[in-house]
Amino acid sequence: QLQLVESGGGLVQPGGSLRLSCAISGFTRDYRAIAWFRQAPGQEREAIACIGRYDGMPNYADSVKRRFTISRDNAKNMVFLQMNRLKPEDTAIYYCAADFRARLGCTLLRDEYENWGQGTQVTVSS
C-alpha cells in the first residue's frame, strides 16, 4: 500500500509563495505519476499539476500555469509544488495522489488517481 503525506501549507499574503511537499512511502515500486489537486469549499476537487515519475514530464492546469512548478526527487520519494504569485482564489486544501498506469508523461484526470493524502490547507489572504 502506498501512503502519501502532504505538508507545507499555511497562511500567506497575496503575491507570496509557498512550497508544498508530498512524502511517498510504503510500497513505492509501482506508481507512475504524482499529481497535486486542490479543493476549495463548495467546489469539486481539481487537478492542478502532475509529473511523471520516470520521464519527469510535467503538466499544469491553466489556472496555475506559469505560477506553480511541480518537481520530484525520486531518491527521496518526494514531490514538491512551488507556488508563486499566490492569489486569494488559490485558497484550498491541497492533496497529492498517485497514478499507477503506464503512460507518457502524466494526466490531470482525477479518476486516474488514488491513494490520496490527508491534505494540507493553503490560505491566501491579507
Task: Write a short abstract of this structure.
With 126 residues, the chain is mainly β.
Task: Describe, in plain words, how this protein is organized in 3D.
The protein has 126 residues and is mainly β. It contains no helices and ten strands. The strands form two sheets. The protein has a six-stranded mixed β-sheet with strand order 2-10-9-4-5-6, with no helix packed on it. A hairpin with a 4-residue loop joins strand 7 and strand 8. It is globular. The relative contact order is 0.32. The model has no long low-confidence stretch (mean pLDDT 95).
User: Which secondary-structure class do the elements indicate?
Assistant: mainly beta
* Gross geometry: globular
Task: From the alpha carbons, calculate the radius of gyration and give it in angstroms.
Answer: 13 Å
The overall pLDDT, averaged over residues, is: 95
Per DSSP E runs of 2 or more residues, the count of β-strands stands at: 10
Which percent range describes the beta-strand content? over 45%
